[in-house]
Each structure stands twice: as structure tokens, then as C-alpha cells.
């Protein structure tokens, strides 16, 4: 069904630049930001603060102590200053931010970057010496935090209520590898921004066809080959799960395929397949959700958004292996053609599922895509990512995703990528004792196993992974941020692409596997 909705122009993340000079030596900065470090005797100020105190005629350390600042990561002390004369080389700085970096870890610098971004919204520029004392990978974390802490989305007739700071200059940086670290961080932050945007777009625009159009646009710009299955091709090739879930909607389903081939690839190069759940809105189907549970369901395609965003950034992080992204996209709606409790559907490849809960739809579309991947793409590794079960949020709370894996080395790669990216994840068990709950008396499987819901959902999907090393990432627990917190902004989190890119952009993402 055609939609008349049109997304208004959105804001962009800040631009970044590097400079070996300190803030007082750089012209044009509207805001200066300096690091604050905890100290047994109080707090210490980082590079450039003493010079700034002299130039501005303000005792910054005294102001910091008067504010009783602790230096914890992300703490901001704002000090308005009288603008300097236009003839001064340093420009008309009017605000100084003193930003805590805690113990100076990578996580602390990511949080500090987000704090700077929030404190400088609607500003033209900020010059900061935070990166001058960053640890290894800290500059990149600072940039990612600043990008994602700047995120905003609007659909207002008169434009956005606020805009990210336009430009952030990282001062006091002379490391030869800083340019490369900055470029990689912009790719990671940009993927998180795109994933968050896709998840935030309302479902009156974000149909399966619209999501496919975004994949074509982003994939084309990234040099990927993109293929889209419409409902006729899905039917002809036997994607019964996707068709059943999307059968109740006036907006027909799609499957998206995005192919990344690295430079110098050979036919023997291993292939990673990523599968992302793309439910553009989930009403629950005939097993309808309570109204309050539907309020966030425009972001039930967050796994698919993570795959699309990650695929578009693979070349930017120099991924060394072939990667294929699959996003089965459907709207789980209610009508006379919607799937019913008790229906039996046939997935790609022939396995059947009894549908005893129409609100357990995500595993039905993932199953089709996973079966297609194993049958047609010969993957070395298969990873699916989805906002799959409310049970995962019960198990892990708000800020940590969960994952399952049938391969220990792959599990270790997931753990390392989570730690590097800041997208936290916790391994869950594939408990064989629950196998009888995913069996059906009349079909090969039952989609409504009941108790231990995150585990039984993983066991249901495991059949479609076959013997391939496989990881299942269920981040329903981390898909929605209730408030601004560090690099997360209130609303859909856009979780996933940073973790995937930290893994796939490593030197050997399949080390120990292939």
C-alpha cells in the first residue's frame, strides 16, 4: 500500500577535525572543553586548562573546586566566560566546559564524549583537549560517544527543537594513527546513528517496502549489491514464515539481501551471513498485544536496522571477509488474512512450524532467512540479531543484550566485540532440557514454547542453523532507552551495529573458526 507520509529532513551528527594545537591556540571555537581527572587531593585539569585560565582571566581550577566536582566520567562543570575581543586570535569563546574522565578508561572517554555533545547542542563549535590524554582506542570512543550523544529525531512542522554541535575539534592530538582512528570511529558512530534513525521512524512510513528502499540506498552508496524479494518471489521460492507473518498487513513483506565483497576476494574466501529481524510494526497479530506494549513496536525491526547499518559500513572498517546481510521484513498486523493460532506454516527448505502464538512472529521470519542462508549461501558463520523476546529483558534488565552460541570460539569473538564496542552482552545457555517445549504434535516445531522464553526461542532457531557455527543475539533488553544515559538517547537505542563492526572489522574475524 502506498504511503503519503514524508520524513522531514533530519539533523546530521557533528563534524570532527584533529589539531596538534591546544584550544587557546585555535581560532573560532565557541566552547572550550578540558578534561578533569580525579586526584587524591581533589581534582586535576588536563592539557590547555592553565593556558586557558590565563587567556580568559578565570581561575578554572578554583571554579571547579567551588562546584565540588569529582571528576567522575561524564560530569560536566559549565563556566560562562566573557567573550574575548573579536581581534583576539582565539575568537569569541563564551563557555568553558570541564569534563570528568573518571579513571581514564575507554568507557570513561565514550561517556565524556557524550557529555560534551549534550552540553554543546545548538552551538557552532567546540574545541576540546580531551583526546590529548585518551588511552589506546580512547579517541575513537570519545568520537563515538559524541556522535551518539548528539542524536535527535524529529517530525515537527517547524524543524527540530535542537541540533547537534556543528563541529568538534580534537585539540592537542599529534599521534600519526589518529586520522585512521578518527575515520573508523566516524564509521562506527555513523552506523549507530543510522540504526537508531531506522528504528525511530514511525511505522506509518516504515513499511517493509520502505525499509527495503533504505537498504538499496545505503547499500548502493557503500558499493554493495542489494537484492530485494517481493511477495511474489517470496511465494515462488517458499518463504512461508515471512509470508505468514506479513499476510495480515496491507503492506506486503520483503526480504533484503546485501552483499559485501572485500578487495582482493577469492572464491575460497569464507562468508559470514548476518540475519536481522525486520518486523516494521508488531501488533502481536490475532494474539494482540496490550496497547501499552505496542507503543515501542515501531522498533521491532531493530535487528534488521543493525544489519543494514553494519553492512553499509563494512568497507569503512576494512572488513577482510565476505559478508551477506539478510533482513526478512514484514508487518505483523490484524485482518481477515492474518495468520491464526494453530496454523501450520512451511519454511524455506521444508521444515514446518505450528503457530500457537502469533506474537512469537520474529522467529518465524528469522527461520526462513536462516534456512535460506544455510541452504544457498554456504556460510562459514551465521549470526542472527533480533529484538526477539520480552523474557530477555526480564533476565538481563535494561542495558545488556543476551546471546546464545553453538561454537565456543565464535562466542569468544562476540564477547570481545561487545567489550570493544560498548554494546554490552551476556551469554545465555542453550539448555537441551527445554527441547521438548519447542516440539509440536503435528509439525516439526512449535513457535510458542512458553517458559524460559529467551532460551526456547533460541532452541527453536537452532534447528535452522544446522551444523554451521551460529550465534543468536537477542537484545530486546537493550532496544529501548527510557532516558538519556551516556551515549544512549531516550527512545530506540539502535543497538547492534557497533558490536558487529567491532567483530567484522577486526584483523581476523574468523580466527579459530576458518
Tell me what you see in this structure.
The protein has 514 residues and is α/β, with parallel strands linked by helices. It has 2 domains: 15-175, Leucine Aminopeptidase, subunit E, domain 1; 204-504, Aminopeptidase (3-Layer(aba) Sandwich), CATH 3.40.630.10. Helix content is 32%, strand content 20%. It has 15 helices and 21 strands. Helix 13 crosses helix 15. It is elongated and about 80 Å long. The two termini are 44 Å apart. The mean pLDDT is 96.
Quickly describe the structure:
Helix content is 32%, strand content 20%. The chain contains 15 helices and 21 strands.
Keywords, please?
15 helices, 7-stranded mixed sheet, single chain, Leucine Aminopeptidase, subunit E, domain 1, Aminopeptidase, 514 residues, alpha/beta, 9-stranded mixed sheet, elongated
CATH superfamily of the largest domain: Zn peptidases
Query: Could you tell me how far the N terminus lies from the C terminus, measured between alpha carbons in angstroms?
Result: 44 Å
CATH architecture assignment name of the largest domain: 3-Layer(aba) Sandwich
| CATH fold-level topology of the largest domain | Aminopeptidase
Mean pLDDT: 96
Strand content: 15-25%
Specify the structural class.
alpha/beta
Count of domains: 2
The number of helices is 15
* Largest sheet data: 9 strands, mixed
Shape: elongated
Oligomer: single chain
In CATH's first tier, which class of the largest domain applies?
Alpha Beta
Which ranges are low-confidence, i.e. pLDDT below 50, for 5 or more consecutive residues?
none
Rg, Cα atoms, Å:
24 Å
The share of residues in helices is: 25-40%
Let me know the number of strands. Answer: 21
Amino acid at each position: 500500500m502506498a504511503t503519503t507520509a514524508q520524513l522531514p529532513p533530519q539533523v546530521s551528527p557533528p563534524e570532527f577535525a584533529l589539531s596538534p594545537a591546544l584550544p587557546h591556540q585555535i581560532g573560532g571555537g565557541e566552547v572550550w572543553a578540558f578534561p578533569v581527572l580525579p586526584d587524591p587531593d581533589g581534582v586535576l585539569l588536563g592539557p590547555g586548562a592553565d593556558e586557558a585560565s590565563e587567556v580568559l582571566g578565570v581561575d578554572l581550577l578554583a571554579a571547579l573546586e567551588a562546584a565540588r566536582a569529582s571528576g567522575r566520567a561524564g560530569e560536566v562543570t559549565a563556566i560562562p566566560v566573557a567573550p574575548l575581543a573579536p581581534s583576539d586570535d582565539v575568537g569569541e569563546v563564551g563557555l568553558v566546559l570541564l569534563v570528568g574522565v573518571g579513571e581514564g578508561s575507554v568507557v570513561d572517554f565514550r561517556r565524556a564524549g557524550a557529555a560534551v555533545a549534550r552540553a554543546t547542542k545548538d552551538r557552532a563549535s567546540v574545541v576540546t583537549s580531551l583526546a590529548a590524554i585518551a588511552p589506546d582506542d580512547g579517541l575513537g570512543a570519545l568520537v563515538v560517544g559524541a556522535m551518539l550523544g548528539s542524536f535527535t529525531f524529529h517530525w515537527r512542522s517547524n524543524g527540530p527543537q535542537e541540533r547537534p554541535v556543528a563541529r568538534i575539534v580534537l585539540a592537542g592530538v599529534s599521534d600519526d594513527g589518529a586520522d585512521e582512528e578518527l575515520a573508523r570511529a566516524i564509521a562506527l558512530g555513523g552506523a549507530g546513528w543510522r540504526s537508531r534513525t531506522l528504528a525511530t521512524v514511525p511505522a506509518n512510513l516504515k513499511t517493509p517496502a520502505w525499509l527495503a528502499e533504505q537498504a538499496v540506498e545505503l547499500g548502493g552508496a557503500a558499493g554493495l549489491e542489494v537484492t530485494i524479494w517481493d511477495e511474489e518471489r517470496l511465494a515462488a521460492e517458499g518463504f512461508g514464515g515471512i509470508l505468514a507473518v506479513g499476510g495480515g498487513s496491507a503492506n506486503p513483506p520483503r526480504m533484503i539481501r546485501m552483499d559485501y565483497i572485500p578487495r582482493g576476494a577469492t572464491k575460497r574466501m569464507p562468508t559470514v551471513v548476518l540475519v536481522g529481524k525486520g518486523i516494521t510494526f508488531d501488533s502481536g497479530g490475532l494474539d494482540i498485544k496490550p496497547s501499552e506494549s505496542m507503543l515501542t513496536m515501531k522498533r521491532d525491526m531493530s535487528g534488521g536496522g543493525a544489519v543494514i547499518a553494519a553492512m553499509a559500513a563494512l568497507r569503512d572498517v576494512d572488513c577482510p571477509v565476505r559478508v551477506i546481510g539478510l533482513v526478512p521484513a514484514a508487518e505483523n498486523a490484524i485482518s481477515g488474512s492474518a495468520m491464526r493460532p494453530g496454523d501450520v506454516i512451511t519454511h524455506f527448505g521444508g521444515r514446518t512450524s505450528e503457530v500457537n502464538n502469533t506474537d512469537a512472529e520474529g522467529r518465524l521470519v528469522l527461520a526462513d532467512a536462516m534456512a535460506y542462508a544455510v541452504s544457498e549461501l554456504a556460510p562459514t558463520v551465521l549470526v542472527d540479531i533480533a529484538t526477539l523476546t520480552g523474557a530477555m529483558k526480564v533476565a538481563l534488565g535494561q542495558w545488556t543484550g543476551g546471546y546464545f552460541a553453538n561454537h565456543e570460539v565464535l562466542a569468544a569473538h562476540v564477547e570481545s566485540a561487545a567489550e570493544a564496542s560498548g554494546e554490552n552482552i551476556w551469554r545465555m545457555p542453550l539448555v537441551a532440557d527445554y527441547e521438548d517445549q519447542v516440539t509440536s504434535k503435528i509439525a516439526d516445531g512449535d513457535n510458542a514454547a512458553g517458559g524460559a522464553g529467551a532460551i526456547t526461542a533460541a532452541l527453536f532457531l537452532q534447528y535452522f542453523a544446522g551444523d554451521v557455527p551460529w550465534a543468536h543475539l537477542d537484545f530486546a533488553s537493550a532496544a529501548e532507552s527510557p532516558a538519556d544515559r551516556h551515549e544512549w538517547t531516550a527512545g530506540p537505542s539502535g543497538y547492534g551495529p557497533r558490536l558487529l563492526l567491532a567483530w567484522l572489522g577486526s584483523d581476523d574475524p574468523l580466527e579459530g573458526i576458518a
